[in-house]
Design brief:
The chain is α+β, with helices and mostly antiparallel strands. It is built from 13 helices and 17 strands. The strands form 4 sheets. Strands 3, 4, 5, 6, 7, 8, 15, 16 and 17 form a 9-stranded mixed beta sheet that branches. The structure holds (2S)-amino(hydroxy)ethanoic acid (HGY) and manganese (II) ion (2 copies). One manganese (II) ion binds next to loops.
Length: 419
């Protein structure tokens, strides 16, 4: 299909949907829709309404992933799926995840309005608990559970700050289903969330693969004592041990190099009171690296650094691995499809890896997958300042639309490569 004369997404309507969804969970400048929270469930209901308005067949699977399916000529064919997530981090921006889901709906709307019939069905999926911070599931929980990369028992042990387990929240969500969909191919359209495209003035990022990552929880157990009467040289200050670890982990990331990133994102001290020496400190650490061997070495070194920080303060340390997600490299035919459509549409492109984790890295274990990036203003994300212009949002959505059309029309050139 000639992309320049072919269908295009309704950019204004897409922006309005992003804004409407962005108001759910609004708190100040940002919004919070933690996985399976009331705000996430409200967003899910809105998504299902929009899917039904498009005439899609709405399905739920055993992981509460939400699928909207547009029929193709051949119902026996597996669907071409466009997807991402609508849950957010705390104080999130308006684009992370949700832009990919709503752009999938916009692409289907464009197919409907152009009366395009495809050989394969086309679907949009919204995966459960992509972010992972609410229950410390490690993220990508809905896609990993679907792909068998994590089991329900593991998720049953994950609890939020109120003590509710991930599985109970899933069972109470009202979005559990028995469907099971097998994607033929998967496309995830997402903001870059880093500074590469905006620094280089490039319109479309052609993603070659996604970083491997691990989340760990480190507990430092020292001694609570009186802040005034207890001498400095006899303290076992868990907060100080955690602080030492944070500084040393930062140094470790630079020492490992090669793009290694280490983030001690969450720190809780106990009893967390002005005149008590912290007896306990619990730290989460997120480590990422494209090379799996270097990632393993980095995780081993991270554990040494943490233990040394504890020993320095006479504090015991306990390290728990919360998740370990493999890196992914996308098939060259899928990468070329994204690059070709972006160029046909007249956009500048550059090939690049993703430093952020995405459901695509999990779904790529089930079928050929690819990702499309658009620039993030100032390279920022996971904050209310996260912004991508309406023009960039529309550009990527049109690339998504035309990649999906090609895959769903199943031209010989793709079929010969098993795609
Ligand atoms: O953490 C990530 O990379 C993604 O935003 N869940
Ligand atoms: Mn995301
Ligand atoms: Mn995110």
């Amino acid at each position: 299909m000639n992309v320049t004369t072919g269908p295009k997404v309704d950019r204004e309507r897409l922006w309005n949907m992003l804004s409407e969804m962005g108001d759910i969970g609004k708190n100040g400048a940002g919004r919070t829709r933690l996985a399976l929270s009331a705000e996430d469930l409200e967003a899910r209901r809105l998504l299902v309404r929009w899917m039904k308005e498009l005439g899609l067949d709405v399905r739920m699977d055993a992981c509460a992933n939400i699928w909207g399916v547009r029929n193709g000529r051949d119902a026996t064919e597996r669907p071409v799926v466009m997807g991402s997530h609508i849950d957010t981090v705390r104080d999130a921006g308006m684009f992370d995840g949700v832009m990919g889901v709503l752009s999938g709906l916009a692409a289907i709307r464009a197919m409907n309005e152009a009366n395009v019939e495809t050989r394969r069905p086309v679907a949009v999926v919204s995966f459960t608990d992509e972010e992972g911070g609410h229950f410390l599931s490690g993220g990508l929980a809905g896609s990993r559970l679907m792909a068998g990369a994590v089991d329900l028992e593991t998720l049953r042990s994950k609890r939020n700050a109120q003590g509710k387990s991930w599985v109970d929240a899933l069972n109470e969500s009202g979005f559990l289903g028995k469907d099971r969909l097998e994607p033929h191919a998967y496309l995830e359209y997402h903001i870059e969330q880093g500074p590469v495209l905006v620094d280089e003035g490039i319109q479309i990022g052609v993603v070659q693969g996604v970083v491997g990552l691990s989340w760990l929880r480190v507990a430092f157990r020292g001694e609570a004592n009186h802040a005034g009467a207890f001498p400095m040289n006899r303290r076992h200050d868990a907060g100080l041990a955690a602080a030492r670890a944070i500084v040393e982990l930062n140094r470790l990331a630079f020492e490992l190099g090669e793009g290694t990133v280490i983030t001690p994102g969450q720190l809780a001290q106990h009893p967390n009171f002005p005149n008590i020496v912290p007896g306990e400190a619990v730290l989460t650490v997120d480590i990422r690296q494209f090379d799996p061997d270097l990632l393993e070495r980095g995780i081993a070194r991270l554990k040494d650094v943490v233990r040394e920080a504890g020993e320095c303060e006479g504090v015991a340390t306990e390290i728990e691995t919360l998740s370990r997600t493999q890196h992914a490299a996308f098939p060259k035919e899928m990468v070329s499809l994204v690059e070709g459509k972006a160029k046909d549409l007249g956009y500048s492109t550059r090939r690049m890896p993703s430093g952020a984790g995405h459901d695509a890295q999990i779904v790529s274990t089930l079928c050929p997958a690819a990702m499309i990036f658009v620039p993030s203003k100032d390279g920022r994300s996971h904050c209310p300042e996260e912004y991508t212009s309406p023009e960039d949002v529309g550009n990527g959505a049109d690339v998504l639309l035309h990649c999906a059309l090609d895959l769903a029309r199943a031209p010989k050139a793709l079929r010969e490569n098993g795609i």
